From TrEMBL:
InterPro entries: FtsW/RodA (IPR001182). GO terms for molecular function: oxidoreductase activity. It is a multi-pass membrane protein. Coiled coil: none annotated. It is an enzyme of class 2 (transferase). This is Probable peptidoglycan glycosyltransferase FtsW. It comes from Sphingomonas hankookensis. It catalyses: [GlcNAc-(1->4)-Mur2Ac(oyl-L-Ala-gamma-D-Glu-L-Lys-D-Ala-D-Ala)](n)-di-trans,octa-cis-undecaprenyl diphosphate + beta-D-GlcNAc-(1->4)-Mur2Ac(oyl-L-Ala-gamma-D-Glu-L-Lys-D-Ala-D-Ala)-di-trans,octa-cis-undecaprenyl diphosphate = [GlcNAc-(1->4)-Mur2Ac(oyl-L-Ala-gamma-D-Glu-L-Lys-D-Ala-D-Ala)](n+1)-di-trans,octa-cis-undecaprenyl diphosphate + di-trans,octa-cis-undecaprenyl diphosphate + H(+). Its main location: membrane. It is found in: Membrane. Its EC number is 2.4.99.28. The chain crosses the membrane at residues 39-58, 78-100, 107-128, 148-165, 172-190, 196-212, 219-238, 302-323, 335-356, 368-389. GO terms for biological process: cell division. Keywords: Cell cycle, Cell division, Cell shape, Glycosyltransferase, Membrane, Oxidoreductase, Peptidoglycan synthesis, Transferase, Transmembrane, Transmembrane helix.
Length: 410
């Protein structure tokens, strides 16, 4: 085909695109539905539905444990509360997924600044629970800044690292490292070692994806090992958690090893197919059955097969996002979407590792499965951002002659 023929084809394609863009402008919801990754959205909805069933299974055990002997407390209290949080958070996810990329980025930058300030004051004004100050009492409810900061931090870090594509001399490694260090320091004051691991891990993953030298990455890895050793030496909470995991005391119900061991017992009590909905009995001995250890409750009542299916669903979300990003040309969208997927998968992996007894207790929820208002809304914001950054206009994605840049996709 001659160059003139190719030029006519490209002009015809652009004209068709402009026509379709005009139709999309008249129907924002229709445009969103064409562009959004419907497979990813469906997987998220399935996970939320599974989570509601899991909370229903765990609710009676938690209601009995935390009611203080009050027989008037309904056994399905946490289920109904979780249903309310889902009714609030799911529209939030859809609205966030409709945001233009530029607006979503600006809102995340603003949100990150506000939430870092909130994180700084949390150790001093926060509500204490189980020996930690991670929540701020707003009167009508409690608010956990670190949960909402995670997606904002990822988007902010992705934007800063994407600036290196324009100017490789910018010191974004040190800028993002300083931001991560400030956040990690605030989290350790609460204390919240699990969230610290998530923030540092996501930062490291974004550095790798952005293409920093292997030598620099090795130096950062060595520094990370040194920080863990320093935390064990000088940070009492970390030392207690690590010692409790490596040298468990099965006779003490006050230690993390007791919780991890009990979670393992609950997880395996149902065998391969489980005891059936409502048939679990060991779960009544499990602390935090509706939050940190809900994966174990799923294992008792629905079996190890159900646990494997949940793990596969989390893996499917991460794989789906990375496959979607294989031909992404925008450095910011690539980093932001990849970082959000890594955070989602890493949090799920840590929670499941604790439940099966191969990691010490972290006090971390299982995304979209565990009970919690702050967690559910924050995860919905994160998933909404992930859907926004992976949106593609199917008529603009590729032409017969290679990638076509669209100046409007910012």
């Amino acid at each position: 085909m001659t160059d003139m023929g190719r030029g006519r084809d490209v002009r015809a394609l652009r004209q068709r695109v402009e026509t379709l863009q005009g139709r999309s402008a008249r129907s924002p919801i229709g445009a969103w539905f064409r562009e959004v990754d419907r497979v990813l959205l469906l997987i998220a909805m399935v996970l939320i539905a599974i989570g509601l069933v899991a909370v229903a299974a765990a609710s009676p055990a938690s209601a009995v444990r935390y009611s203080g002997g009050d027989v008037t407390v309904p056994p399905m209290m946490y289920f109904w509360r979780q249903a309310g949080w889902i009714a609030l958070s799911f529209p939030v996810m859809i609205v966030v997924s409709m945001l233009p990329v530029t607006l979503a980025r600006r809102l995340c930058l603003l949100g990150a600044g506000v939430l870092v300030l909130a994180l700084m004051v949390t150790p001093f004004v926060g509500v204490e629970a189980n020996g930690a100050r991670r929540w701020i009492n707003l009167g009508v409810g409690q608010f956990q800044p670190s949960e909402f900061l995670k997606p904002m931090f990822i988007v902010t870090t992705a934007w800063l690292l994407s600036l290196r594509a324009k100017d490789p001399q910018l010191p974004m490694l040190w800028v993002t490292g300083a931001l991560t260090a400030v956040i990690a320091g605030c989290l350790m004051l609460q204390p919240d070692f699990g969230q610290t691991v998530i923030f540092c891990g996501v930062w490291a993953a974004l550095l790798i994806i952005s293409g920093i030298p292997v030598r620099t990455m090795a130096m950062l890895g060595a520094a990370g090992i040194g920080m863990v050793a320093a935390a064990y030496t000088f940070y009492g909470t970390a030392r207690v958690r690590i010692d409790g995991f490596l040298f468990p005391d099965p006779e003490s119900a006050a230690t993390d090893s007791y919780q991890v061991d009990m979670a393992h017992a609950v997880l395996t009590a149902g065998g391969v197919i489980g005891t059936g909905p409502g048939g679990g009995r060991v779960k009544f001995k499990l602390p935090e059955a509706h939050t940190d250890y809900i994966f174990a409750v799923v294992g008792e009542e629905f079996g190890l097969i159900a646990c494997a299916i949940i793990a596969i669903i989390f893996l499917a979300i991460v794989v789906r996002v990375f496959v979607r990003l294989l031909d992404e040309e925008d450095a910011f969208k690539l980093l932001a979407a990849a970082g959000l997927a890594v955070q989602f998968g890493a949090q799920a992996l840590i929670n499941m590792a604790v439940n099966v007894g191969i990691a010490p207790s972290k006090g971390m929820t299982l995304p979209f499965i565990s009970y919690g208002g702050s967690s559910m809304i924050a995860l919905s914001i994160g998933m909404g951002l992930l859907l926004a950054f992976t949106r593609r206009n199917p008529y603009l994605s590729r032409s017969p002659y290679g990638p076509q840049r669209w100046s409007g996709a910012k």
